[in-house]
Every structure is written in C-alpha cells, then in structure tokens.
Amino acid sequence: MGILKSRRRFLAGLAAASVYGPLTQFGLARMALAGQSQQAKLKIVFVVVPDGLAVDSYTGDGFGDGRGLWHPQVQSSDTTAFTLNEVSAELAAYRNQSLYLRGLILGPEGANVGHLGWTFVLRDSAGSQSSIDILLGQALPGTEPSHRSLFAGPHAGVDGTPWFVSYQGNAIRTPYRDPVLMAQALFKEPGLASSSRQPGGSTLLQTSLADIQEIKGKLSGAERQKLDTHLDSVEQVIKDLDLSQPPIGECKPLTVEPLDYRSAKDRTRIQANHHQVVATALSCGITRVATIQIGRSAESLNILDVSPGNNPHECAHRLHQKELWKGTRQWYVQRVKFLMDELARYQDPHVPGDSLLDHTLVVLTSEMADGAPEHMIDMPLLLMGGASGLLKSGDGAGRYLDVTSQADRKHHTGNPVIGQYMVDMQRIWATIAKAAGTTVPYGGNIEPVSGIFSNV
After folding, report:
1. Local structure of 122: helix, strand or coil
2. Which of 91, 226, 311, 315 has a Cα-to-Cα distance from 348 of 20 to 30 A?
3. Whole-number Å distance between alpha carbons of 357 and 62
4. Residues pairing with 83 in the sheet
5. Contact between 377 and 103 (Cβ < 8 Å)
6. Residues 210 and 88 in one domain
7. 79: number of CA atoms within 13 Å, CB side?
8. Three-state DSSP class for 412?
9. Which candidate, 378, 387, 377, 384, places its Cα nearest to that of 398?
C-alpha cells in the first residue's frame, strides 16, 4: 500500500535527515521557499485509448465515412455551436473547456498501418524519434527529474503484448501498471526519500563511476559498448539526485488500494486509482507531464461494465451488436471524464487559489480513428482543460475546429465529410511543443497549426 505523507511531515523528515543541512537561517529559508507559490506552470496529460473512437458509422466500411459516434455535429468549420455525438457526449461536463479538432491523419505517408498505429500515435510520422511526452518532460521539469514524464498504463500489455505508446528515442517505455507500485515510486517515505537525496548520495555514485571508468579502459568492442550504456544511466542518476527537490503545494495523504491490475474484475477501480496517483503527482509538482494509456491496441481484456463475454477489440470491429460497439467506446471516454474530475478537485501546486485542471492541458486521442477498417484517417483528437489560459476553446463555450484548410497531406481515398486533404498528426505535437516553449526534432513538416493556442 502506497502512502503519501503530508507536505509538512515530508519536509520535517527531510530536515531531520539533514537534506537542507543544519537548521541554520539559510536552511530555514530554503524550507520556506519550497512552500511558496510561483507563477502559473503548464501541465500536460496525454490519454490514449485503444482501437479508435468510432469515427465511422456502424455500417461504414473501407476507409470510413466520418459519420460515426465521435466527431461533433456542426454547420461550419470553426464554431462554438456544435452538438456532441453519442461518444463525445460523455465529456459534456467539460464542453466549455474543450477544443475538438478535425481533419487529422496519423502515420507514414502513403501507408495505412492498422494496429501498428501505436508506434506512431505520440511520435513523428516516420516513427523514429522520441514521443511528444518525453520531449515535453525534458522542457517542463517537475521536482523529480527521474519522473520527467510519468507513464501509466494499467491494462496495457497485461496479456504479454507490450504495445506501449511512449518512446525514448527508438526504445519502447514500459508503463507503471500497478498503481500501488507507481505510488511507491513517486511518493517515497521520508526516510527513504531523504537517504537518496542526501548530499553524499551523488558523491558516492561519482566515486563508483570513477572506478567503472578505470575498468572501461581495459575493455573493447561490444563489452565496452554495453558498459557505456550503463555509464550513461549512472550519470543520469547522479544528475537527477543533484536536481531533485522536495514536493511543493498541498500534498495530501494518498492511500492506494492493492488490487490485481491484470484482472478484468478490478479494471474500473484500477483505472480510477491510476488517475488518482497521476493527479496527486501533478498536484505535488513532482512531474508536469504524464501519459495514460487505457489498454493496448487490439486489447483482449474485457470491460465487464459493458460486456462480460466479448472483448473490446471485437466490439470495435463491430463483430457484436451495435450497443456493445458504442458501449465500449463510451466506457473509455467515461474514464477520461473521471480523470478530468480528479484534476478538477486538486489544488494547483504553483497557483494555490486555482484547481490543477486550470493549469493542465489534457490531450485525448487513439492509435487509430476507427477499429473496424483499422484506419488512421480523420483521427479523433480533443484538447481540454484550463491550460493556463493558452487553449483557444471558444471563450467558455467550447469549440470545434476543422484544420483541413492548413492540410499538408493527401490520402488516396476521400472522406465524405472532410475530403482527402488532412493535417499530419506530428504537426499537432509540434504545435503543443511550441505552446509549451519548446520544439520537436521531427523530420518532414513540423509547421505549427494556427488557431489552437493563444501563444502560437
């Protein structure tokens, strides 16, 4: 069971362990500064649901008709007058903080990658660079450098299929799946946390590093290359220890219920626990970037709330009745609604008078548009939250924006609603990066899409 101590007890534990040094005037001043509010700081949470969000109709085929259950119904390409659809309506409570984007395409040009969409969804179109959450984590540091970009995937890969959407370069990241273990990694007990943060901690590692460097001189070829990889990791740990800071804001106690994260029986509660841990980490300033993967592409774990006997991948393929197709998509989006609720109830660590949601951008998408023809055309993408006032979401009314006027890609087939011309998804990641004050190292077109953020 993971327990997050109160901020006061946490700081007291650090002080007792001499993390701040003796309780001199200087030490007390640093403790006081740790609790001061700062200027608003943007937080970003990516949520990826599996097997599309039913952008096509139940009877649609081929590359889709764009008349399904997700995209809002509208009369113009940029409007606050829109009607939410049967699946997007699950987020009606946050309509006024929402920007629904339309006209996006995922993956490499000229290819429909089907269930390999998970290798591209948060990355560049070539699938060769780090995912956007990693890049943002480097630009938006929290107090714990080792948690620059938190990755939670409660039910991703529980069947032994590690189709995870977050990448460090070309290396697939493994998410936290057990929320108890995630809480323990994030919210260390004062004694444990202090020992890793003592001034001598990095010095001991540096001494060991010097010894390893001596050994390195005696190696060659593959053995030396392997050691170089380990040395890079040790050097990063040293940097992280030196840069770690105590949590900020009002860090409230958190108890996580131990449950079997591999079980369909506990799926709904496990997902809720993940959201609570992620929200708490953001509210403590430990991290400012998180990714939540709600199941893997073609997932096999049943959603008992919808259908005990049919897995959600089959339902996405419309192999069962229409209500199960719709019900599984609605269940995924309901989880996102509950995440929004969680973010709304926490206090922001940098602006105590505001909620965490006031300064968080939540990005919802999938690794494909629709699960029956398994295509990436007319992708679902929703931006939500206060986002520190940066998101152009209709001045409190919510907004729908078709971005095909800025299209850079043409597909071989036409969507009856929006046509052949679409915007490459990597440009959305480039746009979010620019809004956050950084850039993406992606090849191809990374021109930001205008009209999404007030500072881009």
Report:
1. coil
2. 91
3. 39
4. 73
5. no
6. no
7. 10
8. strand
9. 384
pTM: 0.83
> How many whole angstroms from its chain centre is CA 100?
18
DSSP 226-252: HHHHHHHHHHHHHHHHHH-----S---
Long-range pairs of 276-279 with CB within 8 A, sequence gap ≥ 24: 276/179, 276/342, 277/2, 277/152, 277/179, 277/182, 277/183, 277/186, 278/45, 278/150, 278/152, 278/339, 278/342, 279/339, 279/342, 279/343, 279/346, 279/356
135 SS3 class: helix
Query: How many domains does the structure of the chain reveal?
Result: 2
Is residue 101 within 8 A of residue 378, CB to CB? The reply is no
What pLDDT, on the 0 to 100 scale, is given for residue 167?
A: 98
Q: Do residues 281 and 236 share a domain?
A: no
E-strand stretches of 3-149: 43-49, 78-79, 98-102, 104-105
pLDDT of res. 322: 92
Burial class (CB in 10 A: 0-12, 13-18, 19+), 437: exposed
DSSP helix/strand/coil, 336: helix
Measuring CA to CA, how many Å separate 206 from each of 199, 203, 240?
12, 5, 13
Q: Which residues of the chain have pLDDT under 50?
A: 1-36, 189-201
Contact call for residues 452 and 391 (beta carbons, < 8 A): yes
Rounded-to-integer distance, Cα 134 and Cα 291, Å: 10
Task: Give the per-residue pLDDT at 188.
Answer: 73
Burial class (CB in 10 A: 0-12, 13-18, 19+), 417: middle
* Domain harbouring 398, CATH code: 3.40.720
Q: How deeply is 415 buried, as exposed, middle or buried, from its count of CB atoms within 10 A (0-12, 13-18, 19+)?
A: buried
Would you state the structure tokens that stand for residue 404, as one six-digit string?
Answer: 């095909």
Q: What whole-number distance in Å separates Cα of residue 84 and Cα of residue 96?
A: 12
CB 7 within 8 A of CB 250: yes
Longest dimension (CA), the chain: 72
How far apart CA 332 and CA 355 sit, in angstroms, is: 24
Judge if 225 and 260 occupy the same domain.
no
Q: Are 136 and 146 in contact (CB under 8 A)?
A: no
Alpha helices in 108-187 (DSSP H): 132-139, 179-186
**Residue 240: its pLDDT value, please?**
59
